[in-house]
Amino acid sequence: MRCALAMWEGRTVFVKTLTVDYPDAIVRFQHEGRVAASLNHPLVVSPLAATTRQLVFPFIEGGTLRECLDRGPLTPAHAIEVALGILNAVDYLHAQGVTHHDVKPENILLFRGQAGFWNVRLIDFGMSHSRALPLDIHSGTRMGTPHFMAPEQFRGIRGDPRSDLYSVGVLLFDCLAGHPPFEDALGWLAGLHDVLAPLPGPEVLHPLLLRAMHRDPRQRPDSAEAMTRELCRARHTLGFLPVEPSGGHAPPCP
Asked: CA 118 → CA 23, 74, 76, 246, distances in Å?
């Protein structure tokens, strides 16, 4: 895979080009393009154009959430805003029958709004599951990023939206602590241990973190909307004011 900036129809774009001829790689690349092209939401980066070997995306100036966290954790107020923005995007995906299956800081573009780092964009649908497609090319696989993939995803279960909620919970933990919750992520996923790093951030967030990261998906919030409500209540308890809109973010709390 080759990624580069280019000019396209008078604007700067980000181009992903498939550079190998392996049949499996071609199928995965085209799968990513089909899923991403089916989405239309201000917090989701969808391609402007697609061919069998190239995807052309709008260029988002800034960096990834991982690059930001490499400099240290976010403040609780900013961490909550980032999580709410991601939940907004994930809620839309789930309404479209899409489970992302790779929500992680590397797949979150983050750029400065009027009050700091809180504007987000969700990218990369290479591991996604879509009910609209007749074939799930990743069916039964353990594809994912161990620190952020849900235990049931590690067992090959795909298409459960609660897997994305697990990832958002881990991501919120990462934003608050500056690192993921499980040092030995594979051991946790395999059920070999339950060693969790100390919960970061304000105590009012701890019950939601534990629920979102629960091994049993039935114990997690029922939906992205439900998780948003819980996070908004915590934000209200902490006295944090929502950031004013500036190019797309989490909607006002209900």
From this structure: 39, 10, 11, 9
- Among 107, 109, 111, CA closest to 127: 107
Render pLDDT for 128-144 as a digit per residue (tens, 0 to 9): 999 988 666 666 666 78
202, 76 contact by CB (below 8 A): yes
Report angle CA 74, 79, 81 to the nearest 5 degrees: 135
DSSP-based three-state secondary structure for 40: coil
Question: Could you confirm whether 102 is annotated as catalytic?
Answer: yes
79, β-bridge pairs: none
| Helix 161-177 and helix 224-238, axial crossing angle in degrees, nearest 10 | 30
**Backbone torsions φ then ψ of 21, nearest 5 degrees:** -110, 15
- Residues 36, 130, 124, 226: is their CA dihedral positive or negative? positive
Q: How far is CA 147 from the centre of its chain?
A: 13
Q: How confident is the model at residue 52 (pLDDT cuts 50, 70, 90)?
A: confident
Catalytic residue among 21, 24, 102, 222: 102
- How far apart, in whole angstroms, are the C-alpha atoms of residue 1 and residue 20? 7
What is the DSSP secondary-structure string of 63-121? EEHHHHHTT-PPPHHHHHHHHHHHHHHHHHHHHTTEE-S--SGGGEEEEEETTEEEEEE
Residue 247 zone, left/alpha/beta (φ > 0; ψ -120 to 50; rest):
left
Share of the chain above pLDDT 90, in %: 73
SS3 content of the chain, % helix, strand, coil (to 5): 40, 15, 45
